[in-house]
Design brief:
Blueprint: H1 2-16, E1 46-52, E2 55-62, E3 67-71, H2 85-88, E4 93-97, H3 114-127, E5 133-138, H4 140-151, E6 156-162, H5 179-195, H6 202-215, H7 221-224, E7 231-236, H8 244-253, E8 258-262, H9 269-272, H10 274-286
Parallel strand pairs: 3-4, 3-5, 5-6, 6-7, 7-8
Antiparallel strand pairs: 1-2, 2-4
Helix pairs in contact: 1-5, 1-6, 3-4
Length: 287
């Protein structure tokens, strides 16, 4: 696994430096082989920065109603929810955030970790005076949601966790060979340069995130068994990074969790078929 992640890191750093390899070319014959760009974000009701433990966490708020927090994946940013915010904000107060060091948010010298970023979310909720919220998490954002479910259970209403893993062994060994995943890394580097307060430090940022991916998460079945909130473990049938057997295992180990696999989609289902993705999330939140 370390060798595979090291190869992924090498590919990421090459892309970050502008040396896109032929592997980034994507066939477009099937939805799961595509990587559509998300829709542009609407204008928020308000946005700003939450001062959290020495860093600044960017947030934006849309709509009215019960709060729903959207947490993006690794290397990404809050704008990646452009296909979801308009629909969700018709029914809920939607809050998007950039994780520390991602997008517009700043970082410090602390090593990246899922619990650290989960604590950032909770402290940002404190700043925004949100006592409790539902969370829709994608990839690293889904892992952060699971950490909140275990360590801050009184702050979570429901969790829709898409594309998560709870151990490093849940990652596919061939993830570094995926043209779609490599294209995502390339796109994320361009977005980082556009949004970040440290736009020339993508390679350093990726190295730090990759170290986290190499060692975390490592939640035990006993920890997962403490989750009380309603949870959906969701994934795409052709996820480039997560083993489907791992999805099944996670749903089995979390009490009452529901397993939802989107046919014909991948780790990027919310872009490949936003209508189906949004419908599933909204149905879960409305239950």
């Amino acid at each position: 696994m370390k060798r595979i992640l090291a190869l992924m890191l090498g590919a990421v750093l090459a892309l970050a430096a502008g040396f896109a390899s032929p592997a980034t070319a994507i066939a477009k014959t099937n939805p799961w082989e595509t990587l559509p760009r998300p829709a542009a974000m609407p204008t928020p009701l308000r946005s700003g920065y939450a001062p959290v433990d020495g860093v600044q966490i960017y947030y934006a708020i849309y709509g009215h109603g019960a709060p729903v927090i959207l947490l993006h994946g690794g290397l990404g940013n809050a704008d990646y929810w452009g296909n979801q915010v308009r629909e969700f904000a018709k029914h809920y107060q939607v809050i998007v955030m950039d994780s520390r060091g991602h997008g517009r948010s700043t970082r410090d010298a602390q090593p990246y970790g899922y619990h650290l970023m989960a604590t950032d979310v909770v402290h940002a909720m404190d700043y925004l005076k949100i006592p409790k919220a539902s969370i829709v998490g994608w990839s690293d954002g889904a892992i952060i949601g699971l950490d909140i479910a275990m360590t801050y259970p009184d702050r979570l209403d429901k969790l829709f966790a898409f594309g998560a893993n709870v151990t490093t062994s849940g990652l596919r060994e061939d993830i570094g060979q995926s043209a779609v995943f490599n294209k995502y890394i390339e796109n994320a580097g361009k977005d980082y340069e556009r949004l970040s307060k440290t736009p020339k430090e993508y390679d350093k940022f990726v190295a730090q995130i990759s170290e986290m991916w190499n060692t975390q998460p490592n939640y035990t079945p006993e920890q997962l068994a403490t989750i009380k909130a309603p949870v959906v473990i969701a994934d795409g049938q052709y996820d480039e990074g997560i083993k489907q057997s791992h999805d099944i295992e996670m749903a089995r180990e979390i009490p009452g969790a529901r397993l939802l696999i989107f046919p014909g989609l991948s780790h990027f289902a919310m872009w490949q078929d936003p209508k189906t993705f949004n419908k599933a999330v909204l149905q879960f939140l409305a239950e």
